[in-house]
Amino acid sequence: MELHELNELAMTARANEWADQEHANGWCWYTGEERIAPYLWNPRTGTRNTVEAMLLKAHQLGIEKTKAYDALRRELQTVDGVRFAPGMPQFLEENGCVFLNTFRSMEDAVSDIYGEVEEIEVEPFMEFINRLTMNDHDREWLLCWMAHMIQKPQERPSVHPLFRSQHGIGKNVLVEHVLNRLLAGHTSTNSLRQINSEHSESVANNLLVFVDESKAKGLNVYLQLKSILASKFATISPKYVREYQQQIYARFMFADNTEGRAFTIEQDDRRIYVMEYVIHELDKQETQEFIRDFLAWWPHGWADVYCYLKQYDISAWNPFDCPMTPAKRDYLDMCTDQLENLIAKYQADTQRMTITEHSWNSFINTQGFSYEESENYRWTKLHLNRELSFRRKLEDVGFREKNASKRINGRQRRKKAWILTSHGQPSEYDLIEREDSRILRESEEAIPEDALPESQIYTV
């Protein structure tokens, strides 16, 4: 064999060896973005490189660019997209496409110490959990919920916890330090608005989505979240990539620093586990001192905690059952108010599809309020007091403001009304002249006109 042929083989072998090493380092070809030419991507570090940049590295090692390029094409896996799929192989094939599974586990990192871990060996962790909960039931539920993420990441619960506590109790430490390490970084902190963002991929690519400061008025936020809290699949719309359906595994954890209502949930809710409001064991300073000591222990103790949770008994814990705790009963009571109850009672008592100023005021007249109490629920008063959110509460139950036609004393009149909608379409108007006249007479008898302020006139 000629010398130049030997040199050629040696150079090819060196290029292949270099490409093999880059493959071992995590590099692959990525073709999954429609508007961008294929590029080199390292999912372990999140690094992107152009082909020219990678060939420059090869050239600096004395490898010809042509041979380096051929070696990269041969040795590196071509990936058409990514999927987050716990319990599945690193590369997934679907309809002729290859997807990189971005799920990672800490199991390999703790394999050298794998075995029985007693509770006494993770005492600082158990003390931390005790401080995050106010009763044994919440403590056991939280431990099982965490253990389930490690033992069965591929099984998504339909129940998600709501933490409410005083400031500085350690909720962020639980997510950003403890769970982020135990779940190999598969956690994301978001706001309620970000979760519902068109391009949000947090739900698709994580085991835990932490929603901090979960404060919202009305049922709208809950209704938007309702389907995704229990669904197995979601439509993902990344930028520059066509939307696609993906199975999701993310658990949600909601947190707020108020003892009251964070966001409204339905009375028959089966998706939110409400934990008892947590207060400092002594005071905020003492809690911060404990957390400082705990975080100093954590880098050395996390592997033991992982093994402890990996073997924790969750056989009696049901990820699809939402217990009715005393804290949840209290929370549900906070999710109703007098005005919301009156709107519901108006619908039930009158069986009407519309609410007008007159029909609402007439209804209030029949509710047994004193004159002073009834004044607080008059139509005009409710619309002027923005803090009561009367318009929003009407919208929450399906009413929309419309202009309606009605015959009054033989003449066609236009008047504003709130119309109950069905799937976005207005339902049949029920502005009934005769019935309105009867209610008007009864209301005038119940409260004589001369007893009302001059500004309060009941007309249709």
Automatic annotation (TrEMBL):
- Which species is the source of this protein? Thalassolituus pacificus
Q: Which residues form the NrS-1 polymerase-like helicase domain?
A: 164-271
Extract the Pfam families matched here.
DUF5906
Domain of life of the native organism: Bacteria
| Protein's UniProt name | DUF5906 domain-containing protein
